[in-house]
Design brief:
mainly alpha
């Protein structure tokens, strides 16, 4: 009993420290970066790690297959939140948040239920996740990035509440994993335990446009989470939970940095192209 309580405290401590650190980085960097980092391996990674430690690497590896597929439910979640923002237009702040969260959870629940009806292997899970992420990236492309100009410094207490929420979700999933089995444990591991409180806090503190900016960029971050989960699926049962986690984080981080570097190069090329066209237009006007 003492061992179980101590292990639960370790889970909570790791979850809180991890989420608080990344939350502070994300919020200071702005909504776009917050959206990307929200998709970075956090809640799902911690959940799979503790499932691997408590139940076994094989169980965690099988759960990770469904975590990969479950990323499509996360995509459904943010899409549902986006729909809720539209439905909640001109409503009071509390009502708007309630509508947005309700539509997001309904979309997540429906997608999760559908996934449990499918016979999924690692390849199928990767395909489902990649297709849903690509579709969301395309569908959200027209959303304009809205920077936060008048930044209300979010209190540490608010960030801690978000981290505590994530810790409760992680603790619940890892505790119930033996009962629900690897399928549901894996799908629940993909639950957006850090994204949900982030969206609620930003919606409460700032404007819906800032929430939309985060949602637009979540699929980009989910690509790194998909890389992480696939690495975990392939390595937990061969090289162990600890090294599989390290390798997963290394691969996810390198992938995300490469993705952001590619985005910056495209942005610079586009800016140069606009300046060049502007200069040509000025010369033509002068002539």
């Amino acid at each position: 009993m003492i061992g179980f309580g101590l292990f639960a405290l370790v889970k909570i401590a790791v979850s809180v420290l991890f989420v608080v650190a990344l939350s502070i980085i994300a919020e200071r960097a702005g909504p776009r970066v917050a959206g990307v980092i929200s998709g970075y391996p956090m809640g799902a990674a911690i959940t799979l790690f503790f499932i691997g430690v408590e139940i076994g690497p094989d169980f965690a590896a099988r759960s990770a297959v469904f975590t990969a597929a479950g990323l499509s439910a996360t995509v459904a979640f943010v899409a549902g939140y986006l729909v809720g923002l539209g439905w909640a237009r001109n409503r009071g702040r509390a009502a708007a948040i309630g509508i947005s969260v309700s539509t997001a959870l309904a979309a997540y629940g429906g997608a999760s239920w559908l996934l449990t009806r499918l016979s999924i292997g690692a390849g199928g899970a990767a395909l489902i996740a990649a297709a849903s992420i690509a579709l969301a990236t395309w569908a959200f492309r027209a959303i304009a990035d809205a920077p936060i100009i008048d930044r209300n410094r979010l209190r540490f207490r608010v960030t801690l509440i978000r981290a505590a929420f994530a810790a409760v979700v992680i603790l619940t999933i890892t505790t119930a994993a033996k009962v629900v089995g690897p399928r549901w444990a894996g799908i629940f591991s993909a639950f957006p335990s850090t994204v949900l409180p982030l969206l609620v806090i930003i919606q409460f503190t700032y404007r819906p446009d800032h929430v939309r900016t985060i949602i637009k960029n979540v699929p980009r971050g989910l690509q790194s989470l998909l890389v992480y989960v696939l690495i975990v699926t392939a390595t937990y049962d061969t090289i162990g939970v600890a090294w599989g986690t390290v390798l997963g984080y290394a691969a996810a981080t390198v992938y995300l940095l490469a993705l952001e570097y590619s985005r910056r190069l495209k942005w610079q090329a586009r800016s140069k192209g606009l300046k060049k066209r502007s200069g040509t237009h000025s010369q033509d006007s002068g002539a």
